[in-house]
């Protein structure tokens, strides 16, 4: 038996946010997606997740009332970064 790693399905829940962006921003995302070989949606998703690394935003969120969902997002992102860091250090 060989050690085959099977492809796991993506577990993202997708929503259509319904916001508008400028034509210039759309073009930048389009070309960046082409450059990285990701879809435009994946580029936006990955880039916007970087907002969860903004320490001032995290501080603001911790002081906000009714912030359970926001804190869960921040904590999940923090745990994912820790796992990524650990994975890279093993190599």
Written as H for each helix and E for each strand, in order along the chain, the element string is HHHH
* Largest sheet entry: none
- Count of helix runs: 4
The beta-strand count equals: 0
Instruction: Average the pLDDT over all residues and give the rounded result.
Output: 81
Terminal Cα span = 25 Å
Key features of this structure:
91 residues; mainly alpha; 4 helices; extended
Could you please describe the fold and organization of this structure?
There is one protein chain. This protein is mostly helical and 91 residues long. It has two domains: 29 residues; 38 residues. 62% of the residues lie in helices and 0% in strands. It contains four helices and no strands. Helix 1 packs across helix 2. The radius of gyration is 17 Å and the shape is extended. It starts with 22 loop residues before the first helix and ends with a helix.
């Amino acid at each position: 038996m060989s050690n085959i790693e099977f492809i796991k399905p993506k577990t993202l829940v997708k929503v259509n946010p319904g916001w508008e962006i400028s034509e210039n921003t759309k073009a930048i995302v389009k070309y960046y997606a082409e450059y990285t070989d990701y879809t435009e949606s994946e580029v936006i998703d990955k880039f916007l997740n970087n907002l969860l690394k903004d320490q001032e935003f995290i501080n603001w969120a911790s002081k906000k009332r009714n912030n359970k969902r926001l804190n869960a997002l921040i904590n999940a992102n923090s745990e994912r970064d820790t796992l990524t860091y650990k994975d890279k250090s093993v190599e």
